[in-house]
Amino acid sequence: MAKTARKKAPAKRKTNNRAGQKLERGLKTRDAILDVAEDVIMNEGLGVSLRRIMVVAGVNVTSINYHFGQRDKLIEAIVERRSNIINAERLALLDQALHRQNPPSVADIVAAYFEPSFHPSRIGDTGWRNYLRILSRLSLEPGKFYRDLVHRYYNPVHLRFLDAFRRALPDLPEEEIMWRHHLMHAIAIRAFPTPRPLSTVATGLARRVTPEESLRNVLPLMIHLFAAPPLSSLEAIFGHSRFADNYLSNK
């Protein structure tokens, strides 16, 4: 009786392995270009040319075109890569806060927003430091492309946090929740600890701060920002002061 020959599949497996290795090399190259781009943009500004990034990264036009296509797509890839990580961590902490108690704690919501970007692993990583400082610049840029870019990747998360604050502070007017969230976001970007020292304008003193110190000082202020009474009740607190007359009067 003739033996049935076994079918061989190694060739296909090798093909799959080669394809997987090629994909892995491509992803590594893409990440390496993004790392260099973050560093160059951080040091030379958002207006740096694509050619300059190519020179520093040691890649050619073909590689840039393959991975990104054009400069705007490269900038978007920078935002997308790290925003996905920050957003996932913020939402995970927010979900924990929402499930911990009902209504949720303002302190837990604020901490969920700040902790991911202030984590020591972020502060100690050059790439993350570069990215978060670039994000700060993008947020202040007047151009529509930059504004829409930040909005597209971060607005869905901001909407989740706004909804959480509404649940935590049902008696606070909507406009005041929006204003307080806006101020929280602005402070989160500006207060991000970097190797640059913390300067005290009044005395001229300067020293470096740790992520833990930043959180210890920022979080209580943000919690009190949201816990403050509505503006409608502040006139009784400030009385007949210049501030009350100028900003709190309904006249």
Average of per-residue pLDDT values: 83
Structural class: mainly alpha
CATH topology of the largest domain: Tetracycline Repressor, domain 2
CATH homologous superfamily title of the largest domain: Tetracycline Repressor, domain 2
Gross morphology: elongated
CATH class of the largest domain: Mainly Alpha
Order of helices and strands: HHHHHHHHHEEHHH
β-sheet strand percentage: under 5%
Question: What is the gist of this entry?
Answer:
The protein has helices at residues 10-44, 50-57, 61-67, 71-100, 106-118, 120-123, 126-140, 144-168, 174-190, 211-227, 234-238, 242-248, and strands spanning 198-199, 206-207.
Explain the layout of strands and helices.
Layout: H1 10-44, H2 50-57, H3 61-67, H4 71-100, H5 106-118, H6 120-123, H7 126-140, H8 144-168, H9 174-190, E1 198-199, E2 206-207, H10 211-227, H11 234-238, H12 242-248
Antiparallel strand pairs: 1-2
Helix pairs in contact: 1-2, 1-4, 1-7, 4-5, 4-8, 5-10, 8-9, 9-10
Task: Label this structure with key terms.
two-stranded antiparallel ribbon, 2% strand, Arc Repressor Mutant, subunit A, 2 domains, elongated, mainly alpha, Tetracycline Repressor, domain 2, 251 residues, 2 strands
